[in-house]
Amino acid sequence: MTITGIDSTGQPAGGNVLPPASAADAEDLDAELRALKTEVAAAPISVIPAVDAAPEAELAPVRAPRWWRSLTWRDVLAIATFIAVALFITAPLWLNLDHELRDDPQDQAFFEWMLAHGARVLTDGVYPFFSDRMNYPDGVNMMANTSVLAVSLPMTPVTAMFGPHVAFNAFLTLALAATGISWYFVLSRQFVSSRLAAWVGALFATFAPSMISHAGGHPNIVSQFLVPLIIWRTLALRAQGRAVRNGLLLAALLVWQAFINLEILFMTAVGLGIFCLVMAISRRADRPGEIAAFLRGLGVAGSVTLALLAYPLYVQFFGPQSYHGLPEFVRYFGADLGSFTAYAQRSVAGNSLTAGRLAQNAAEENAFFGWGLVILFFGLVAWMRRSVAIVTMAGVALFFGAMSLGPRIRLNGVDTGVPGLWSLLHSVPILNSAVPTRWALAIAPIVGVMLALGCQRASDLMKSQPATRGPVRVAMITAVAMALVPLVPTPLRTVPMDPVPEFVTSGAWKQYVDDDHTLVALPLPDSSYPDPLRWSAYTGQEMRIASAYALLPNQNPLDPTDRSALFAPPWRPTSGLMASIKRGNPTPEISETRREMTLADLRYWKAAVVVLTPQVRDIEMLRAMTELLGFQPTWTGGAWIWDVKNLVDADKANQ
């Protein structure tokens, strides 16, 4: 994964190249990077050891054309392919706008709310890093909750015109398509000369089983369109004389990615750090100037990035409603060792029974590659083992695989009792906010690059040795097909969505809820009932709601130092009672003490109205709340409504 700065015409790209050097040096990375040329004068970048590469000095010093001027019909076809596959994956959402994702509806509602927040930042000028429109009065730390501001802000016109539900569909579809297109252009312009090789690599990096799994609810994670650009610009830092320019370009990409998903940025940084360190050690004798140039550019990028992110990161880790580490049970979410050779349930060769036994849930199938791809991976490493870069990439992939196993290794659903590499790290600050199984996400891009390089190597072999054309072509097509065809993704699964009640869509809620009060839904929103987030998003967050589905600090009265995260606000009597009834538990006796606790909760939330929509166990919740409040609700706009503003404000009037 190295950039020489030579584009597809064989010319220096904007001066980001090293001085000419002979390709004969055994450990010369430039020689490695030129080995996959189909022609000496048409060389992008490769990481395969050179055999008969021409010196860079022989390349014609003609200014490289801009990428959009060098578009070919193959490029257009590749772009169309990524858009078509993205639409195929998300088609159930577009064809059924009254549906939601089946496997992760809570995160869909969460990101719809985040898209509404981004739109509100632009239209109303609200503070972007914190919001009290959910979980009032404590609010939500947006930086600690994947605010996706880098997406929600530019998508404001879509959110404002079509609503957050359609904006979510557009976000997810564009994330997949843009990631594929980005990988294709970086691979085809910087790594390989074969458009087909670039297409194969980009296709896998974008639509790998782990990506399709997260497409079921995590558009922030599948939004990896900046990752190939970050890799390209990081490796370009070794160009001498361009430290400031290259550093600033990289810093811009890093800051942009930070406001999409910090987890992906962190994993990318770890992988690039290991790769660059190994390559620097292997090349230190022959190209010492590269290390100094790289460090200067890295210094610029790091300084600018830290300066721009200092305040947002301060808010994330030390601001209101910040937390320190994920819940303990999440920190034990490791990938099952058996999943690496299994197939994900959204792959054509997969099934829900096997995948469900090997993964925590359908949105975390991060390490499902299948036997065919595992064999092909090691076959490519053996075939291209002379390349330090290839071996290093393979090593990084194996390292990520080891990290993903979590603190204790499981095999086919059984705890082996063997501690994993993550057992040494899962309590380290910052790392304790990572989900270990997601380290396997970083394997797919590495495999994608290796697939592109392997296809390029086969193409070069067929051109240099025409007699082998038939056998090599058959072998490569067979190997790639056997590895990738079983992984072909299927469309996302959806289910009918509970509609936003007319009480909200008609604006009737405004007769009850002003900017000093909230709407309290029954049950209160959490991971099992995220619908109120969608209601708030529908109103453009004009309507403030109590409670939340978000990462919030644990306010444990028995241990005030415990600031680990919860996926909902701390327990309160009313929220706990309604959640218990919703789960099917019997309604306890409604005592005067319970009535007093409910009134205290409503005053804490500054409730104006309590709302119950038709749902499972709604009659039981209706009876319980009626007994707690002492009066009957009214049926308004498709919901039962208790107007409690006078009860709540009575406490204020008596003060």
Give a nutshell description of this structure:
With 655 residues, the protein is of the alpha+beta class.
Lay out the secondary structure.
Layout (H helix, E strand, L loop, with lengths): L28 H6 L38 H23 L3 E3 L3 H20 L5 E2 L8 E2 L7 H4 L3 H7 L1 H28 L3 H13 L1 H7 L3 H4 L4 H9 L7 H16 L3 H22 L4 H31 L33 H7 L11 H14 L4 H17 L3 E4 L2 E6 L23 H22 L4 H16 L9 E3 L5 H4 L12 E5 L8 H8 L13 E2 L11 E2 L6 H10 L9 H14 L1 E6 L5 H12 L4 E3 L2 E5 L1 H9 L2
Parallel strand pairs: 7-10
Antiparallel strand pairs: 1-6, 2-3, 4-5, 8-9, 10-12, 11-12
Helix pairs in contact: 2-6, 2-7, 3-5, 3-6, 3-20, 5-6, 6-7, 6-10, 7-17, 10-11, 10-12, 11-13, 12-16, 15-18, 16-17, 17-18
